[in-house]
Amino acid sequence: xxxxxxxxxPHHWRRDLIExxxxxxxxxxxxxxxxxxxxxxxxxxxxxASAVALIATAAFHTWWAHRHSHAPPPGADGAASxxxxxxxxxxxxxxxxxxxxxxxxxxxxxxxxxxxRLRVDILTLQTHPLARGTVDEFLxxxxxxxQPQELTREIAAAGGSATWxxxxxxxxxxxxxxxxxxxxxxxxxxxxxxxxxxxxxxGRCTIHSLPAVSVTGRPTGESAPVEGxxxxxxxxxxxxxxxxxxxxxxxLPFTPxxxxxxRALVELDARLGPRAPRGEDVLTLPEGNEITVRRADSRDxxxxxxxxxxxxxxxxxxxxxxxxGDADRYLDHLLSPRFGxxxxxxxxxxxxxxxxxxxWDGDETEVALIVEDDWQRRGIGSELLxxxxxxxxxxxxxxxxxxxxxxxxxMVAAMRGLGLPLDYQIEEGTLVITARLRRERAAxxxxxxxxxxx
Length: 454
What we know:
Layout: H1 4-7, H2 13-38, H3 43-69, E1 92-101, H4 107-117, E2 121-129, E3 134-143, H5 148-157, E4 161-167, H6 176-189, H7 194-202, E5 206-210, E6 229-231, E7 234-238, E8 244-248, H8 256-272, E9 280-284, E10 290-296, H9 301-310, H10 313-320, H11 331-335, E11 340-347, E12 352-361, E13 364-371, H12 380-394, E14 399-405, H13 409-416, E15 422-427, E16 430-436, E17 450-453
Antiparallel strand pairs: 1-3, 1-4, 2-3, 5-8, 6-7, 7-8, 9-10, 9-17, 10-11, 11-12, 12-13, 14-16, 15-16
């Protein structure tokens, strides 16, 4: 509300003088017109008609001004609003949209005009130049009532083609340079982050690490040129550790800009070489022994082979579901940060007694454990599994699965101990247990003993 004092307007003598001069001028002009028309044969009739028209115009102007001076502001008290305005409730949703336009002046402006007419707010915009045309990528805040089909039709009418749209969330509000720098930092700190960084950089995609040599020592024939290969919805990048990193995204072709960003991350990984965080957690087991849990990589290959040598054939058979003699062949693959993350448990003397693996398997994630016979049934497997699941949840995985044998009661008990929804599939003695992760369960479950962080 406005007070009477603030609403009172100051009175100026100059405005009165101007109005008086305008009045005299109007009277003089009216007298001249009356003298000119009054001496004509139809002069009186023309003067009457002019007076009536003037009175009608003045009356209409007064009514119009009075009506609109009392009208509520647009959008207030349930006033009618645009259909695209979410029925006037102000609810909005976030969309990511890509469309291809001609590389010509005014193409982007036409899209912006359409979005403005639909009351869609452009939060971010990226352009991906192509050989012919340009791919424009938008992050949009749109009225909740606006359907994606309607938005796609309007964009097509404005010159956009091959339009793709999907729901976005608050994480997409981070601008692209900031997100790329954060992913580069994660990759620099941990070699195992490269596949995850590529997935977050490129959106929903499937990533496969194809080794140059199989676990049996035979060449696989997988290779790629140094500069990589881009083929529409597939890109192949040379893996610095050997082999190829294959990225597939069937629902949306890659652009040269995305290919260049992915290749830059791979080149960063190649320059930094093997690396893994060396943080250690010291745990005290119920019987009083201390163990250390840390990250492991290819540099622990000799210690991992020694662990295998101390394990019984039964333990190796339960872990690898195959010939016991072939167990060592998998270690190069399992310890490589390109295929996942590995946690190792070592004693106070430095001997490796357990390994836990979190393996990237395309769109899925596998967990696997092996614990030396003399250290089983002390809670070490449950501790490793809880940490691996926490790592998976931190990377945004929806589920993890374990492949074991139905008689492996220790692995079954450890999976049940997670307190997560489980799915079981069994075929010819092979058991697959899938745990569905809750996103809020990002913290590591409580361990088996007291923890001291170094």
